[in-house]
Design a protein that fits this description.
Length: 612
């Protein structure tokens, strides 16, 4: 088989036989190549899933072709031989698909996905070499098998004709199959007439429809939109400086509040700063579609490995979210979808026995709600077994025997490290690792995870995350001589309780009666270690806060206002302290701590186990 490559004149002429050093000029070129290739390969992976849904999609094939063409061209210039050969082989296959000589099927998509995985390994090897300024050997990464496969596919999938005009018209919904068959019968008697002419004469299609279908048949290449690439580090710096500007403007407003001559100018400055911050934040927002599309491939692979028929549906994939949140969300979603396929979705015969379709379904939803982004992962499988969860938790000492737990508390048990109800370990899941990682990953993003399940109906995981990691809406409160920010998304209401509404319940501590129900009271000064002072609950204010469907009344001394706050990290030495999500510089230049409401609930529950 001839696998010769076109000649390239470049800075590296000989293929790498052993590790060789890289010059400063080459380092910069290789660094750009790696960055662009990683981006192209991610894009290819997403578009291949689209192509699987629409194998004749012209634009999809063009997009994938362009990405491989770029990788092939630059790798040839850099004499990255294996990358060049593999990208060239895929490009040839896609070029045939673009010209209508072949139609990409499932086998071709499998092969292209395999090439993407191999190219990622090869690019990763080049990237690793940059750390030591050498080009590492890649003899252990085989591409010959894939090259043989692409040659086989090119021969077996090729066809001498383009996509029939009638097939294009039916796919576009212009005519139905019956009309095409009738027109073909007429054409048998009138071979001089083209199918398009017959359809127009019978008024089944307009000349414009035929012209558009002919254009699709020719499959022209369209130029991509021009874009400007910006380093994510530069975007992060821009957001940080915009945040600093907001803080400086807030301090200036506070100090000039009594000077009427400056009030108008400071207000105008505030509007400009707000717009700047909004633009900076929007530049870091990206649709969650790319992450969702990766999940389609994951389900596809897991479905084949497990022998189950599983599809993935999506709603709201255009919902935008902070880019840093998208990157951090990938691993938790992988864990949950693995569990859904392996444990949630039943095998086909079992589903049919239960009156369900043989094919299982996992639904991904994304939408905005109340200043947060909500992501739901829902399957139609067997659901969580509450009795088995309780039995396993009691057996491992996680909960006392005969403990009375709410449904939400039972499901939360699966989030503990090492907890698993799987009867057997598979290569997909069942080792008791994963869900605790999911919880930790989501909480690190200041998010929450809720679990709902119905026996034989399915399970739904709901992730609630802030739209951005940089800014938070919050209520500023005073507790003794300290000020804290409570996230606005957690605040339900605030009021001063009557003396008659304050109770002490045996073994459960203080309670506040509100709207005919008792809400456990948490004294924030005690949570933060100041137990020497004790104010009667009716002498202060309570803020009813909610986390994971649990409500608690936080006792405070004063509400100072509501505003947007730029979140600052507490640093590696303090970030592990439970109860705090970060810090914020207030309008007077002092620091206020942002509360982690769920962490405070956990601290209170440990001090008074009966509270939960």
């Amino acid at each position: 088989m001839d696998r010769s490559l076109p000649e390239h004149e470049g800075i590296f002429e000989k293929p790498s036989v052993a590790d060789e050093s890289i010059s400063d000029d080459d380092m910069e070129i290789l660094r750009d190549f790696i960055s662009e290739s990683e981006e192209n390969l991610d894009s290819i992976e997403v578009r291949l899933i689209d192509l699987e849904q629409d194998p004749s999609g012209r634009e999809i094939v063009n997009d994938i072709f362009r990405s491989f063409h770029t990788i092939k061209g630059v790798s040839g210039f850099l004499a990255l031989t294996k990358i060049n050969r593999l990208a060239h082989a895929v490009e040839n296959l896609l070029d045939s698909a673009r010209s209508g000589e072949l139609l990409v099927d499932a086998a071709a998509i499998d092969a292209i996905l395999g090439s993407v995985d191999t190219l990622k390994k090869l690019v990763s090897r080049v990237k690793k070499g940059l750390e030591n300024r050498v080009r590492h050997k890649d003899d252990d990464i085989d591409v010959d098998e894939l090259l043989d496969k692409f040659q086989y596919l090119s021969i077996n999938l090729s066809r001498e004709r383009k996509i029939p005009l009638g097939e294009i018209l039916v796919r576009k919904g212009v005519v139905d199959q019956k009309s095409i068959e009738q027109s073909l019968k007429i054409q048998q008697n009138r071979p001089d007439k083209k199918i398009g002419e017959i359809l127009v004469a019978d008024k089944k299609a307009s000349p414009g429809d035929i012209a558009e279908a002919l254009a699709d048949q020719k499959n022209p290449v369209q130029r991509p939109d021009t874009q400007v690439k910006v380093s994510t580090q530069k975007l992060d710096d821009l957001v940080n400086y915009a945040g600093e500007l907001v803080i400086a403007q807030s301090i200036l407003r506070q100090r000039t509040s009594l000077d009427l001559s400056l009030t108008h100018s400071v207000t105008h400055l505030g509007q400009i700063v707000s717009h700047m911050q909004a633009i900076a934040m929007s530049m870091r927002m990206t649709p969650i579609k790319a992450t969702f599309m990766k999940m389609i491939r994951l389900v596809r692979d897991l479905s084949r490995k497990s022998g189950k028929e599983v599809t993935l549906s999506m709603i709201g994939e255009e919902t935008e979210i902070d880019r840093n949140v998208v990157d951090a969300l990938y691993e938790p979603m992988v864990h949950m979808i693995r569990n859904s396929v392996d444990h949630g979705i039943e095998p086909g015969p079992e589903r049919i026995q239960k009156g369900k379709p043989a094919e299982g379904n996992i639904m991904l939803r994304a939408y905005h709600k109340g200043g947060a982004i909500i992501i739901e992962i829902e399957d139609d499988g067997r659901g969580l077994d509450k009795d088995r969860i309780i039995e396993k938790a009691a057996a491992t000492g996680l909960i006392p025997k005969h403990a009375k737990l709410s449904e939400a508390q039972i499901y939360d048990l699966i989030l503990h490290p090492g907890f698993s109800t799987a009867k057997e370990i598979t290569d997909v899941s069942g080792r008791g690792v994963g869900m605790d990682v999911v919880k930790a990953g989501i909480e690190k993003l200041r998010g929450r995870l809720n679990i709902e399940s119905l026996k034989d109906k399915g399970t739904k995981f709901t992730i609630s995350l802030p739209l951005t990691l940089a800014v938070i809406d919050g209520m500023l409160v005073r507790v003794e001589d300290q000020r804290y920010v409570i996230p606005a998304t957690a605040v339900q209401r605030a009021f001063r309780p009557n003396k008659e509404a304050c109770f002490t319940v045996e073994r459960q501590g203080e309670m506040i009666r509100e709207r005919n129900r008792l809400i456990p009271l948490i004294r924030l000064n005690e949570v933060f270690g100041k137990k020497e002072t004790s104010t009667a609950a009716w002498e202060g204010l309570v803020v009813v806060a909610e986390s994971k469907d649990e409500q608690r009344a936080l006792l405070i001394d004063e509400i100072l206002g509501k505003d947007e706050y730029v979140i600052k990290s507490l640093g590696p030495n303090l970030e592990a302290i439970k109860g705090f999500a970060g810090g914020a510089i207030l309008s007077d230049g002092r620091v206020g701590l942002i509360l982690d409401v769920h962490g405070i609930f956990e601290i209170a529950s440990k001090e008074r186990p009966g509270i939960f």
